[in-house]
Amino acid sequence: MRRRSMLLAAGAAALAGPLAGRASAASLSGPLVDHSTVTVLNGAERVDLSSRAGAVAPLATGTVLVTFRTTSHNAAMTLISASDPAVPSSNLTLALQGGALQFSVRQQSSVLVDFTTRTRYDDGRQHTVAVTVDSTGTRLHAGGRAVFDTVKRPFFSSVSGLTALTLGANLDSDHRSGEWFFTGTIERAAVWGRVLDAAELVAQCPRPVVADHGRISTILNSNTPATWVFTGDSITHGALHTHGWRSYPEHWTERVRWELGKPKNRDFVIDSGVSGATSAELVSFFDERVTAFSPKIVSIMIGANDIATSGLGPEQYRTNLISLVRSVRALPRSPIPVLQAPNPVDPARWPGRTGLSQYARVMSEVAAQQEVVFVDHYNDWLTGDGGQVPLSLLNDGLHPNERGHHRIALMMIRDLQVFDTGSQVCTLSIP
Q1: What pTM, to 2 d.p., does this model score?
Q2: Residue 10 is inside which H or E element, if any?
Q3: d(CA 157, CA 92)
Q4: Which helix or strand (DSSP H or E) is residue 411 part of?
Q5: What Rg do the C-alpha atoms of the chain give, in angstroms?
Q6: pLDDT beyond 80 at 383
Q7: Angle subtended by helix axes 356-370 and 314-329, to nearest 10
């Protein structure tokens, strides 16, 4: 009880400084609520900000933002909730539901809006999520980028009797001590009486993501079908070295076309990887291997053969990658490129490819320069094995085996925010 009292007091203290004395005109620009005291919650505690409930209760439009890290995979975890604690199920709540971002508004058990993303955020990383509501509808944001939208637009003013404002739990007459407790760290929670624009949302994020990351999340959260093209060399091709198990594009197919529950499984995943391909070959055969499939997202993993090909040193590789990224974006409907670094290889068996780290570095630099989503398998493999090449993930010292392909798929799944402990793909155990 003593620790809980300290937490509740901390919530009040965080609001009692300059914020409490601001003139009402300040609400036109600054937040009405801005709790910036970093608070660690253990799944049984909450922070009471109810002294500010009256300031947010009239809002029909505005922005709610929370920066947090999770330390568990609780089924339901509240980030911030405004409620009427004297009646059942009257609340506005931004929460995590199975790790997915959930926004719900209820008036005495009547659901006004309740939607949940397919993308997930209970991975222990720092995330900043936000809800904006205006006259056109509601948008969810993660990392400063929109990831979901709906024309529905209930907000605080849609719920009568709001007197409780809490972080880490929701209160109602059936749960006076709280429910849906959060486990982890809430670093900031803020509410504005206006809709922050795109640039402002990015500026509020300690760790913003590139715009393309948000576009991919929007596709994953949408019911609109999408075509994914995976192109590259033999690693993407996935033949022979997987011993009959799935390659990483096939694992992605199962995750996206089946497990995410998109209607009628109408996302399509095409593998146009060709054994022996180089970045120069991809540039030359771009129409055949990418354009022909009218993609929305194009994954490019290339480089393992460039290093062993005359004339394809790191700088030419850089030039080719930039060309590929620009070619993807120049296609109709401006598809989204994703760059995926090749895995490291066994230097004892492939001494001519020991400089592959240069190519992975060049790819990371191109991704940063071109603001492309980058999945860094090269460093993931080394970091996960104490700086050594994990030979157990390789079939011949160069090509990933069935375990290596699953590791590649998991890295992509985590970086694109669709990891789920209830997924068979995510939890697959390969002997």
Answers
A1: 0.92
A2: helix 2-15
A3: 10
A4: helix 402-415
A5: 24
A6: yes
A7: 40
- Rounded CA separation 342/168 (Å): 40
Structurally, at CATH architecture level, domain 2-209 sits in: Sandwich (2.60)
Q: Is the dihedral of CA 177, 181, 183, 186 positive or negative?
A: negative
- Tell me which of 3.40.50.300, 3.40.50.1110, 1.10.8.60, 3.40.50.720 is the CATH number of domain 214-415: 3.40.50.1110
Provide the pLDDT for residue 214: 98
Using CB atoms within 10 Å of the CB of residue 263, give its burial: 0 to 12 exposed, 13 to 18 middle, 19+ buried. Answer: exposed
Tens digit of pLDDT for each residue in 209-262?
999 999 999 999 999 999 999 999 999 999 999 999 999 999 999 999 999 999
pLDDT in tens, 31-79: 999 999 999 999 999 999 999 999 999 999 999 999 999 999 999 999 9
Closest-CA residue to 280 (of 229, 326, 316, 330): 316
The token pair at 347 is 């230097």
Across residues 118-141, what is the average pLDDT? 98
- Domain borders along the chain are 2-209, 214-415
Q: Characterize the bridge pairing of strands 127-134 and 39-42.
A: unpaired
| C-beta of residue 41 within 8 angstroms of C-beta of residue 138 | no
Nearest to 416 by CA among 203, 260, 234: 260
